[in-house]
Design brief:
With about 100 residues, the protein is mainly beta. The protein has one helix at about 5-10; strands at about 15-25, 25-35, 35-40, 50-60, 65-80, 85-95. The protein has a single domain, classed as predicted glycosyltransferase like domains (Thrombin, subunit H, Beta Barrel). The protein is globular and about 35 Å long.
């Protein structure tokens, strides 16, 4: 599937970024994010269609925050030393980092 096809399926505009993400027992880097989805690279393996919990670390003017999310894995892309994971976000909430 080409990048253009992925772009046509998107409902919201995506923003390129490099934010840390904690995914269950692994850490990775967010590459892009929108209101309904996220794409990150990580050193772990996941199954297409499975549910996943993750937290994106945000540095805000009021202090460090975690965007905690739950979603469904909709695409997996092998990378050089990592795997790229696209997730459709189904639930999210902000909370202060601990």
């Amino acid at each position: 599937m080409s990048g253009d096809t992925h772009q046509n399926k998107r409902r919201e505009e995506r923003v390129s970024t490099m934010l840390p993400v904690d995914v269950e027992n692994a850490a990775g880097i967010v590459r892009d994010v929108s209101a309904s989805g996220i794409f990150f690279e990580i050193d772990a393996r996941y199954t297409l269609g499975s549910l996943i919990n993750f937290a994106v670390k945000l540095d805000t003017p009021s202090g460090d925050m975690n965007l905690k999310c739950r979603g469904k894995i909709v695409r997996i892309e092998p990378r050089e030393t990592r795997v790229g994971v696209a997730v459709e976000i189904t639930e999210s909430m902000m909370e202060a980092a601990t």
